[in-house]
Structures are given as structure tokens and as C-alpha cells.
Amino acid sequence: MAENPTIRELSHEDRSFDPPGEFAAQANATAKLYDQADADRLGFWADQAQRISWDTAFDDVLDWSDAPFAKWFTGGKLNAAYNCVDRHVEAGMGDRVAYYFEGEGGDTRTITYHDLLREVSKAANALIELGVKTGDRVAIYMPMLPETVFAMLACARIGAPHTVIFGGFSDKAIADRVRDCGVEVVITSDGGYRRGKTNALKATVDKALEDIPEVHTVLVVKRTGQEIDWHNDRDQWWHDVVDKQSETHEPEFFDAEHPLYIMYSSGTTGKPKGIMHTTGGYMVGVAYTHWAVFDIKPETDIYWTAADIGWVTGHSYIVYGPLANATTSVLYEGTPDTPHRGRWWEIVQKYGVTILYCAPTSIRTFMRWGRDIPAEYDLSSLRLLGSVGEPINPEAWMWYREHIGQNTCPIVDTWWQTENGHILISALPGVTATKPGAAMRALPGITADIYDEAGNSVEPGNGGYLVITEPWPGMLRTLWGDEERYKNTYWSQYPGVYFAGDGAKYDQDGDIWVLGRVDDVLNVSGHRMSTAEIESALVAHAMVAEAAVVGAQDETTGQAIEAFVILRESAKEHNHVVGMLRDHVRAAIGPIATPRSITVVSDLPKTRSGKIMRRLLKDLAEDREIGDTTTLADASVMDTIQQQVRAAR
Ligand code: 6R9
């Protein structure tokens, strides 16, 4: 590590927006929440736990005696599916819509809480008939369909942890996860719709399971009706098995620490980590944060998390959080440009969406397509916007505010990880001022800090490593089958403190700016800089829609900055772009941040959640063979970029 261990602050962002008075006047969360949590943190969480229905009340809020293995709400018993569905029907809300499903091709379904109770009960009965027992793991590899939610909740209902595998992953990714998790039942569909074409989900599952005879049942939802191979001794149609089941199922209540799901997270290197979440703390965490951060008013809001259920964001903010709060959500199957680039805004207008939550990658894509597209739609129903998944560049934040949020909607930039289970750092929309690009501060009940190498808090204006200093309810409990790796990955850098693996800085007001993964930090001539800030400087240029920056080995400076940019549509014919952008970065940040090369590309390598996989670009910049691409959302993209890089040099 260089003599200068903190990350240099590069950006100078001084825009700040106070919460609009009208919003603040009606907000769920008030400043009092911070005081309550500061005065008695565990008492605060005991209060939040009342958002959930417990069959048996818990004895203690937290048992941290076996740290870092936490137990929250010990002795409590509950059922996650009961909390998401039955209790709302029992309270007379059965006719409320749980999901407006919008298929890519325009087919729609409206699922009320009543419908959800019936479908989840039938699916639970079906799983029992197929031999699934409490504690057995079930893999779900599906498009974004109502059945995906039914399947997850059916698993939760019978205490069988699910592991949802993103529908874009390869057969190898499925096989790794199925093996690691010891799965015997897989739920999939014949296919799904993506950009107007069908993708072959069942065929991918067939390939993945070629050498895994332990999987005795593959349950197949019919979505597209496409041709598929059929294994008589293993495959069963969802409609054959589920439709005939009884519409009632008596839920069993499980211990608060009963596993709810395992979600695999690729990490930058090595075998994917099976991040395990349990029931009680997770449900409390998602219900509370969904209420506080999204200001949810379940009687009137139409809530839309435009993310995939195969990402933790979908688990917590399409399924468990919104349903725990009896919310009406939109569930959209497809891509933002099918059949046209206004599809999201058409959906907002059609359903009167009031709260939209999505990733910076989407916002930057919309920026690239141009402001005229959203301008064609009535977006006046929107009252709150959220961002998740990556640092959001200030220019993308401003564009989101102006062209989607009509200059009035507060924007919550929410920082959290698969490991965290729910949002940990975010503005509270009626309380906290917001700044373009800043996640702001830890939520009430959460204790975040930024440490230097030695484990001391850094001063305002400085950068370091983001940590969470005390356990929180939705935290992962372990890595599936690998307690050592759990301890080493998260709890060994600073004893007793959770190491997030992200770089962050405090600004002069003490607000938190997340700078991205520490593996992505650059070191040029001993100066440590974040890729996020250089990328933001590039995106701030009127011609740039997206940018990715990596540090490539350099004989004189240690590392040199290489940048990859996607231009906005309006900038496509411009000559001399590269020179202009280099000058622009030099002027915006300083000579130290000047890229050695800038390559114009048509796409960037991204994960299912839109995160740029910089290590692949680094392989390219350092002229190595391209590493593992199994978790790319689109596997072909690296070939295209390679060609564009060759052509440019
Ligand atoms: C929810 C999710 C976690 C990593 C995390 C960080 C990045 C997520 C962010 C953000 C800056 C935000 N990240 N939200 N960085 N600002 N608002 O994304 O989970 O897929 O596990 O990724 O994503 O680097 O460490 P996951």
C-alpha cells in the first residue's frame, strides 16, 4: 500500500437539496427516529419488530455472544409468507392489488392479496407433495413472473430456503450453485421473453443438471410455449402439479433464525459466496427500511422496483419488504427498450407509479437515449425516486431529478449489499437533505463509519474503508457451508466490525460518499483514487453517457488510468472526442487523473445488477486473457469491446 493510505478526494460537489416541505409534512420517518435509535439501539429494533406478526414473541433482541454469528429476536417464531400474505387478507385487505404484472409483450395480470394467498398455498402444497421438507433447499431459475414470487413464498411458507438464480446466468453458474447448496428440486420455466425473443431457460437447466442426478424434480412453468426437451422421470409441469392442489395451507411457524434464503454473490474472484439470510431479523429489516426510506403509504402508493428478482434488490424490495407492508407493486418482465425506448415511462403513466427504485446503469442508459423520450409521458404521479447498485454519478443523479423527478421528487441513494439484506445507508426523504452522488448517512438503528488502515475513524474530508460497527437485523448469518470464509471475508480486517469492501469518504459535513469496491481503487504514482470519481468527471461531459475506468500496469506510474466510454446518442458524429475528453478530465480533476487512453465503446461489461465488471476491462487493458465471465448479464459483450479496442489502437 502507498504511503498515502487514504483515498484522495477528487470531486467537488456542492449542490444540496433540502427535503421539500410538502413531502416532509407527510413523511413516515421523522428526525425523531435518529434520536430514538441513538438513545437505545436495541430498544429501537424491538419497536421496529412490531411491524411483523410473531406467532411466539421473542425473548431477546440480539444475542451477539458468539460473534460474528448473530442471533436476532431469539425465541421468536414467525412465518415469512404469513407476514407477506395471510395477515393482510385476515385484516380485510384481500382485494388490494399486490402486483400489477406487465409482460414484455404487453400481456398483463392483476394479482390481489387474495390471489396471492391462494396461489402460494397451492404451490406450498405442491412442494410438499414433491417431497420438499423444512430445511431442504429449492433453486428457482425463472423470468420475472408472478410464479417466481409464488415459488419463493411457497418455499418460505414451508421453511425450505430458496436460492434464486438470475435468469440470465449460464448452465455452469446454475450447476455450481445447485451443487454448493445441495439442491434437489429446481423450479424454472420453458423460457421467458427478452427483447422480443424467447430465451431458453429450461434448456439451460437441462444442460446444468446433466451430471447432477441428485436433482429429482424440475418443476416447469409454461410461459412461452416453446419447444423443450422433457425428462419423464424428472420434469413436471407447474400447472399439472400446482393447479390441482388445495387452496388452503396452514402455515407452520419457524424460529426467527430459521434460514429464509441463500443468495449467491459472485465476489470479484473465486467461487461464489452463498450468502445466508434468516427469517426474523431479515423481515424486520426489510419492512422497516421499506417504510422509512420509501415513505410507503400502502393505501395509495404504486411502488415499482425496476430490478430483477434474481438480485437481492428484488428479494428485499420487490418481494419481502413491499409485501410485508401490504404494498401494491408493479412487476415488469422485460427490458426498458422493448418494444420501444419509452417503455418504462409508459408503465409509470399507465399505472400511476408513485415511487420508482432502479439502478444508476438504467438512468445512464436513459440519459444516452435522450431526455425527449421520458418527456413524451405523464410522469406527474411520481413522488419519490431511489437508486441502488453503484455509486450514482452526480450528473446522472441530476438528470434523474430533472427529467424523471420533475425537479421535485426527493432522490434516495441507497447503499447496501446482498450481505446486508436491506438498506443501511440512505437519506430519509422527508428529513435529510440530499446531495447528487452521496448516500448520506446511516439509517436510524445502523452504525456506519469510515476507517483508515489502522482502524481509526477518518476525519471529514477524508476517505477510507466503509465499515458497519455493530450488527444489524438483516445481516447475513454465514456463508453457506463455509464459516471460515464468512469470518475471514467480513470480520477479520477490524475485530468485531463488519468490513464492507467498499471505499468511502466523508465530506466536510460528515456525509458519506461511497466510492466503489476497494479492489477498484487506483494507485497512480502513490495517489489512491476512486474509479467512481474519474468516471463521474467523464459522465459530467455532455457527450458521455457512461464511463468505466481501470488502472492498468504502468512502468513509470505503477498504474495508469484507462477509460472506456459510451457516448450519448446526440454526440455520435463528433470527431476528436478522445482528446477533448482527456482535456476535460484534466481540467475537472487535475493532471494526476488524466487517462492514458480513452476508448469509445458501444457497451460495457455488466452484472445482472448493472455493476461494471472492471476486472474484465483491466484484463483487456493489461493484454491478458479475459477472466471468468459467467456472471455477465450479456456474455457476448466482451468480444465486441475487444474488437472496438483493437480497431481504436
Ligand atoms: C444492493 C446491492 C453490493 C455493492 C456494494 C457497493 C455497490 C450498492 C450502492 C453501491 C454506491 C450505492 N453499491 N449500492 N455503491 N452507492 N447506493 O447492490 O447488492 O449486488 O451485493 O452489491 O454494490 O459496491 O458493496 P450487491
Automatic annotation (TrEMBL):
PTM annotation: Acetylated. Deacetylation by the SIR2-homolog deacetylase activates the enzyme.
Segments crossing the lipid bilayer: none
Keyword ATP-binding attached: yes
This protein's UniProt keywords: Acetylation, ATP-binding, Ligase, Magnesium, Metal-binding, Nucleotide-binding
Residues reported in the UniProt entry to bind CoA: R194, R195, G196, K197, T313, S525, R586
One MF term in the entry's GO annotations: AMP binding
Reactions the enzyme catalyzes: acetate + ATP + CoA = acetyl-CoA + AMP + diphosphate
AMP-binding enzyme C-terminal domain: residues covered: 533-611
A biological process from GO: acetyl-CoA biosynthetic process from acetate
Family: Belongs to the ATP-dependent AMP-binding enzyme family.
Name under which the protein is recorded: Acetyl-coenzyme A synthetase
Species, as recorded: Enteractinococcus helveticum
